[in-house]
Write a structure and sequence with these properties.
Layout (H helix, E strand, L loop, with lengths): L7 H20 L9 E3 L2 E5 L4 E5 L7 E3 L13 H4 E3 L1 E2 L4 E3 L5 E4 L5 E5 L2 E2 L1 E3 L19 E3 L1 E4 L19
Parallel strand pairs: 1-7
Antiparallel strand pairs: 2-3, 3-13, 4-12, 5-11, 6-9, 8-9, 9-10
């Protein structure tokens, strides 16, 4: 029978430490498990625009400002009360029907982006499906976040006309 080189109290301490480490690894999320994610947007076909757009989970249109690119923010201060930033808690990965990203706002909050542009809802939209912010010109132009053109509606086919009777 082979005896361990470590005294019994030391083996017990190592075993306890090992068990505690394994238990902590199971209970505490780590970078290997990825960051938390949260569904923040959905798609909807908007008949007014004839396109498929991004909306909030409640169906409110999401917009971006054409001049906000490359991490440059124009909509700050009072603008952010009219154009409400779509934000997530720091460290949360936003998800939706398309690839979304994040950018840090000047006020420190984390804003959701689509194609590199920060997303906002418009206070002038009163219900799901409204697109009252579309085309508003400011320092740039506000546009709904378009994910696809709507499927073209089939055009009615012309009906053949009966030929007039020919006199013989």
């Amino acid at each position: 029978m082979r005896r361990s080189a470590l005294p019994r109290p030391m083996r017990s301490a190592i075993r306890s430490t090992l068990c505690a480490t394994v238990l902590a690894a199971l209970l505490v999320p780590t970078a290997a498990t990825g960051q938390a994610s949260k569904l923040v947007a959905k798609q909807a076909t908007n008949p007014t625009l004839g396109r498929t757009i991004l909306t909030t989970l409640k169906g409110r249109t999401l917009y971006s400002l054409s001049a906000e690119t490359g991490g440059r923010f124009i909509c700050t201060g009072g603008c952010a009360s009219t154009w409400r930033p779509l934000v997530v808690p720091a460290g949360v990965k936003p998800t939706g029907p398309v690839k979304l990203g994040t950018v840090k706002r000047p006020d420190g909050r984390t804003q959701v982006t689509f194609k590199g542009r920060p997303l906002y809802s418009f206070s002038g939209d009163s219900k799901a499906g409204d697109v009252n912010g579309e085309g508003i010109k400011d320092v740039g132009t506000w546009h709904a976040a378009v994910t696809a053109k709507a499927a073209p509606q089939p055009q009615p086919q012309p009906q053949p006309q009966p030929e007039p009777p020919y006199p013989y």
